[in-house]
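We examine the record.

___
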Amino acid sequence: MSVNTVSARCLAAAAIAAAVVGTVALPASAADHSRHDRPAVEISAVQYDAPGRNDRSARSLNREWVELTNTTRHAVNLNGWTLSDERGETYTFRHYRLAPRATVRVHTGEGRDTRTDLFQDRHREVWDNFSDTATLRNDHRRLVDSESWGHRRHGHDDRHDGGRHDRDDHRGDGHHRRA
């Protein structure tokens, strides 16, 4: 064999190896890219026990709410998404886009929907004061996020924390906010 034939074979083998590595690496980087572009909406806070007198008035019911936060740089269309409790009480989002890095508060009672506040238009409480789970699902019924309170977790029972529950930050006043 001549030196040129060996060199040509080595170059061909190197080209094939580079093509194979490039093909294998491409889906991995594409997968990483799509993971960052997925809509990320989370339940960022829950006020399940309205402060003050509970008289089922619109004012009292609207002090019970769930906050959702869009953690991305892109608006997320929530049309058809649902927010529900353990009993199956369900609120369905209609014609609502959550702006980038924005938060919307979903109140239990009646009111006029705005960019930052939505209303379920209910005449009684949704969230159980002692234990419940708020579940957010997308328009394909896939779980997006959930937040529970009052259930025994890791030896801790937060049943008597005053009613306000936000993720990842217990402050002793019933306030718990996601960091």
Remarks:
- The CA atoms of residues 1 and 170 lie 76 Å apart.
- The chain is about 20% helix and 25% strand.
- The two ends are 68 Å apart (CA to CA).
- The first helix runs from residue 3 to 37.
